[in-house]
Amino acid sequence: MTTGAGAAKPSNWNVPNILTGLRLVMVPLFGWVLLAFPTDPVMRWLSTAIFVIAIATDAVDGKIARKYNLVTDFGKLWDPIADKAITGMAFIGLSILGELPWWITLIILVREWGITALRWAIIKYGVMAANRGGKLKTVMQSVAIIMFLPGLAFLPVWWGWIAWAAMIVAFVLTVVTGLDYLREAAKLRARYLAEHPGEDR
Questions:
Q1: pLDDT in tens, 45-83
Q2: Over the stretch 148-180, which tens digit does the pLDDT of each residue have?
């Protein structure tokens, strides 16, 4: 029998990583459909469908990777990048179309990519895993984007109210969880340095 220490690492050519790669490929396709046909209701729904499929692959690839022990370094690196690329394209696209204020998009993008960079910057101190608030933030961002993508101008007024309510909740969660991650990063660093007093502060 092969011991745990000697077990071969899973190949990068597996279903979860293929889904991650597919999600990355869908980013420019999604952006083109959204921005090239902003006044065509059918194409707006198509852009929404592409986004939903991309988000669905995110939910599926992680479950498959964990269930069948297919977690790889490629997946760890590119899965979150693919997630932020597709949602970032959605926020930027909506702002380019004038359907979402740029300040909302910019604050969300700074938070998303800033926390990602922070995770890598403090990796020597420990792994800062996603918490429940962060997962809820991701869900609310996806819900808000899905409601905005068909174009609020083509939809009933009540849809727009719900869409804006979802976007406000997503925005608040994005900011609050970002601050939580900053506090968690500071705690990780402080704990590490307390356990390793000889290391450079």
A1: 999 999 999 998 877 766 776 676 766 666 666 777 888
A2: 999 999 999 999 999 999 999 999 999 999 999
C-alpha–C-alpha distance, residues 22 and 27, integer Å: 9
Q: What is the pTM of this model?
A: 0.85
Amino acid at 86: I
Helix H segments across the chain? 15-36, 41-67, 73-96, 102-121, 132-148, 157-195
Total H helices, total E strands in the chain? 6, 0
CA-based radius of gyration for the chain:
19
**Which tokens in the block code for residue 172?**
């608040």
Q: Give the closest residue to 173 by CA, choosing from 133, 201, 146.
A: 133
CATH architecture of 15-195: Up-down Bundle (1.20)
| Domain extent listing, the chain | 15-195
